[in-house]
Amino acid sequence: MRLRRMTALFAAASMALAACTGGGAATVAPSTASEAPGASVASEAPSAPAELKPIRLQLQWFPQAQFAGYFAAKDKGYYAEEGFDVTILPGAVEIVPATVVAGGQAEFGISWVPRMLAPRESGADGVVIAQVFQRSPTLQVSFKDRSITKPEDLKGKKVGSWGFGNEAELYAGLRKAGIDPDNPSDVSIVAQQFDMVAFAAGEIDAAQAMIYNEYAQVLETKNPATCQLYTADDLNVISWEEYGTSMLQDAIFASEAWLAQAGNEDDAVKFLKASFKGWIFCRDNPEECVDIVLKSDAALPKGHQTWQLNEVSGIIWPAPNGIGITDSAAFDRTVEVALAGKILTKPVEGTAWRNDLAEKALAELADLDTKGTSWTKASVTLTEGGQ
């Protein structure tokens, strides 16, 4: 599995960087966890109907806490309670959920919004029915000695990018800062693997990272100069969300043609209701939720998954209008950034998102806290290798 290979590569690079012995831990995001107000989702699985309807959910990446709410909804019986037998299909670099759903191989998909929109230009008919991630977690990370504190400082630097459509936020940020990503004399864009190996080896000045994944990989690695884990104080971070060139990421979508078939909109509402309950459960029961993720073929270890869930919850909560509701301004900005980044070649045509199904699902969850206004991040202690 590619993810396991990536994990092994990162671990090997970390060992090569420093011949250090002993443990080590880094505590970041110092804040106090608190339960959100309102009723919590029950931890016991509810009774399920005798016959369940098969439903497939295509993820955009391998199983990990990024998708914890869906694994929890399946494990706790929330999908079954709505009459579904849900199969969660793992993603990979080569899998495009929008084409999987458009081809009828899955009823629902999870995707970055731009990656769902791009296939629409070729005839796919995906439509966002719930925007789960409210904010972008994409960062550009550098070591302090590179003196990169703002996008303008990336001029003349070696800047890592994953590609595959993940570069649009970075490119839009560079252009906003007066740097042409297509001009090698302005900036050197380096093809970056989906890990932090090249960054840790000093081959990249500023690496692309998700706050819930690659950023933590650095903090799980020992600094060869000190034989202690790197800490947040060793790093500078540029947030594209804060800089204003962010895009909407993990959304639940379905095919317009499928939704148009009799009864499928009702099924979509039920699916969203159960999925939202899964995310609420993970917000209020993070330790149990991490255990659910780990038994769902997640490759990365428990410490890393604990960090990931904590950060993913921070991307979802608070949800000012309720989990799953798409903000029109954020969607429009996403399209603008995708156009600038050449992920899209023309403005979006037709109906690419709708809130009515998510609103119906939220109405059926009126006894639960669907906004998470009072939720705060926990303090997660990272260990070497994310164990």
Report on this structure.
The chain is α/β, with parallel strands linked by helices. The chain has helices at 2-17, 68-75, 78-81, 97-102, 113-117, 168-176, 197-200, 214-219, 240-243, 256-260, 264-284, 286-294, 302-316, 328-340, 356-363, and strands at residues 25-28, 53-58, 84-89, 108-111, 126-131, 138-143, 158-161, 188-191, 207-210, 222-223, 228-229, 235-239, 251-255, 380-383. The chain is 34% helix and 16% strand. The radius of gyration is 21 Å and the shape is globular. Mean pLDDT is 89; it is low at 1-19 and 26-38.
List keywords for this structure.
single chain; 387 residues; alpha/beta; three-stranded antiparallel β-sheet; 16% strand; globular; disordered N terminus
Helices and strands in order:
Elements lengths: L1 H16 L7 E4 L24 E6 L9 H8 L2 H4 L2 E6 L7 H6 L5 E4 L1 H5 L8 E6 L6 E6 L14 E4 L6 H9 L11 E4 L5 H4 L6 E4 L3 H6 L2 E2 L4 E2 L5 E5 H4 L7 E5 H5 L3 H21 L1 H9 L7 H15 L11 H13 L15 H8 L16 E4 L4
Parallel strand pairs: 2-3, 2-4, 7-8
Antiparallel strand pairs: 1-14, 4-13, 5-13, 6-9, 6-12, 10-11
Strands of the widest sheet, in order across it, are 3-2-4-13-5
How does the helix and strand content classify structurally?
Answer: alpha/beta
* Strand proportion: 15-25%
Taking all residues together, what is the mean pLDDT? 89
Radius of gyration: 21 Å
Q: Helical region count? A: 15
Low-confidence stretches: 1-19, 26-38
| SSE succession | HEEHHEHEHEEEHEHEHEEEHEHHHHHHE
The N- to C-terminal Cα distance equals 19 Å
Number of strands: 14
> How is the main sheet built?
5 strands, mixed
Q: Characterize the overall form.
A: globular
Oligomer: single chain
Helix content: 25-40%
